[in-house]
């Protein structure tokens, strides 16, 4: 890993000075905020069919922006929401000799509810003051529209200063990341040659803190299952039948409670197969990061962490697998009381995976775990909402070295190499299908409220995202292909 000062790029003579790009970013930043607000105003909630037309309009908005920067761009048809694909061959005779960069991000967002907890309407972006300066509040502000615009606006600066990017650039911005990415792999197989590149840059993760950039080298994987326990053929009077029949909610709750032992380890047989020990060097690097657990937990109103015994909070989120119930429903959930034994009960259960844990085996083991605990008179139905394995990115690639130099130019300090507890399924697919490594450089903060009410992006982070993508592109262009 290189931590040297900005490199003397190969073919430097035809690259503009990075300072001129950064100045252009700063000059145009007010308009960059307005464009982000326009993007955020389109409610591209991919999981909810009620928003399908808006999701398409959002893809088309992005296509128009990219065409304005000299890209050939389209909202490509898929089996689900459109895929925004754009390409620029790069400017000048040297461009073809330089590395080809693929950018990945997503233009879809999570649902905004509970809407009543927002301080301003989720799709009416508001620029407000916060302790770190101004911030933009809206669904998708940081996940991932603000980060996608970090890339687009950096390309705009290159367009203004040099007429376009210095190397061949392709963008693949999907519209289903928040809802299972079902079109992504079929699309990648079909469009493989158009997506060919030397490295994929993904901006959908976080920084260490507002002044410290980070490159994420570990992502957890995910298995998401829905289980419904069925009992009696109809809802029953709990006085007439209570004590005489299995209650699906009681049954499901007991099974869910058995998923963890007293050490808060997951009890499913084979669950820990493939989970690697954290290398001592990684553990000591993480210990040296100075993670402020009090701040991390204090932000969400907690004083102490909770999870698998014997591991620190960072280890538990970055390098240990987990099981969480994400939703549970059945029976009477309206106001007041209704004495009823419900015919069904459902839970949404997800698992975050690490190392070489196999999503298909975990899903099958969960099903077997549930079925083995069903009493006579109950049956279970399962629905899978997808699965993807964990990712570890090499910390020694020359692209990572180039990204480090670009980030150092912008922040005046080297990025930290971190993990994240979240998942970006596309990263695994890009590796498997397109055969390239991803570089995860993101600009979110822990308190950005991703997937929560009042999601925000600090304008300082947005500006640094644009500056960083502009500077990193110069560093990539300086590498021989
Ligand atoms: N941007 C997130 C992933 C993320 C979250 C990275 C937190 C770093 C920190 C991404 O959009 C996301 O939410 N992914 C989902 C994947 C799922 C819907 C398949 C996740 O992690 O839950
Ligand atoms: Zn997300």
Task: Give your account of this protein's structure.
- The protein is an alpha+beta fold.
- It folds into two domains: 18-219 and 390-477, 3-Layer(aba) Sandwich (Aminopeptidase); 221-273 and 311-388, Alpha-Beta Plaits (2-Layer Sandwich).
- Helices cover 32% and strands 21% of the residues.
- The protein is built from 14 helices and 18 strands.
- It has helices at 18-27, 29-40, 52-68, 145-162, 184-190, 238-241, 248-257, 280-287, 293-298, 313-318, 359-371, 398-411, 425-434, 459-477, and strands spanning 72-76, 83-88, 101-106, 126-130, 133-137, 169-174, 199-202, 214-219, 221-230, 236-237, 322-330, 340-341, 344-353, 379-388, 391-392, 416-420, 438-441, 456-458.
- Strands 1, 2, 3, 6, 7, 8, 15, 16 and 17 form a nine-stranded mixed beta sheet that branches. Strands 11-13-9-14 form a four-stranded antiparallel beta sheet, covered by helices on one side.
- A hairpin with a 6-residue loop joins strand 1 and strand 2.
- Helix 4 (145-162) crosses helix 14 (459-477) and helix 5 (184-190) runs parallel beside helix 13 (425-434).
- It is globular.
- The two termini are 18 Å apart.
- The model is unreliable at 1-12 (pLDDT under 50).
- Bound molecules: ligand BES and zinc ion.
- Zinc ion binds next to loops.
């Amino acid at each position: 890993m290189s931590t040297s000062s900005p490199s003397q790029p190969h073919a430097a003579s035809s690259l503009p000075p990075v300072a001129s790009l950064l100045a252009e970013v700063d000059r145009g930043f007010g308009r960059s905020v307005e464009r982000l607000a326009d993007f955020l105003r389109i409610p591209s909630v991919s999981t909810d069919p009620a928003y399908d037309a808006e999701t398409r309009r959002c893809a088309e908005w992005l296509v128009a922006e990219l065409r304005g920067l000299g890209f050939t761009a389209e909202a490509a048809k898929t089996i689900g929401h459109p895929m925004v694909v754009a390409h620029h061959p790069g400017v000048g005779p040297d461009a073809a000799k330089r590395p080809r960069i693929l950018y990945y991000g997503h233009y879809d967002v999570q649902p905004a509810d509970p809407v009543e907890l927002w301080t301003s309407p989720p799709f009416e972006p508001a620029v407000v003051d916060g302790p770190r300066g101004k911030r933009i509040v809206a669904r998708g502000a940081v996940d991932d529209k603000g980060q996608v615009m970090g890339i687009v606006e950096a390309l705009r600066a290159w367009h203004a200063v040099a007429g376009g990017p210095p190397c061949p650039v392709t963008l693949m911005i999907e519209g289903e990341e928040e809802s299972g990415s079902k079109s992504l792999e079929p699309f990648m197989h079909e469009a493989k040659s158009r997506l060919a590149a030397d490295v994929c840059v993904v901006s959908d993760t976080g920084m260490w803190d507002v002044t410290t950039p980070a490159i994420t080298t570990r992502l957890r994987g995910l298995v998401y299952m829905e289980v419904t326990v069925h009992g009696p053929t109809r809802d029953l009077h709990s006085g007439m039948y209570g004590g005489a029949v299995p209650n699906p909610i009681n049954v499901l709750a007991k099974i869910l409670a058995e998923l963890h032992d007293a050490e808060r380890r997951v009890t499913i047989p084979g669950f820990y197969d493939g989970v690697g020990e954290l290398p001592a060097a990684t553990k000591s690097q993480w210990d040296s990061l100075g993670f402020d657990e009090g701040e991390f937990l204090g932000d969400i109103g907690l004083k102490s962490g909770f999870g698998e015994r014997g591991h620190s909070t960072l280890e538990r989120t970055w390098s240990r697998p987990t099981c969480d119930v994400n939703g549970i429903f059945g029976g009477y959930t309206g106001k007041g009381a209704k004495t009823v034994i419900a015919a069904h009960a459902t839970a949404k259960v997800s698992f975050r995976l690490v190392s070489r844990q196999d999503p298909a085996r975990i899903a099958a083991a969960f099903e077997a775990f549930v079925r083995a605990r069903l009493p006579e008179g109950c049956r279970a139905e399962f629905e899978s909402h997808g699965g993807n394995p964990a990712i570890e990115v090499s910390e020694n690639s020359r692209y990572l070295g180039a990204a480090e130099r670009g980030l150092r130019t912008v922040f005046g300090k080297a990025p930290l190499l971190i993990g994240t507890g979240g998942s970006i399924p596309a990263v695994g697919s890009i590796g498997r299908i397109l055969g390239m490594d991803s570089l995860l450089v993101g600009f979110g903060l822990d308190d950005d409220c991703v997937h929560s009410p009042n999601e925000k992006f600090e304008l300082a982070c947005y500006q640094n995202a644009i500056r960083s993508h502009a500077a990193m592109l110069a560093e990539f262009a300086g590498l021989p292909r």
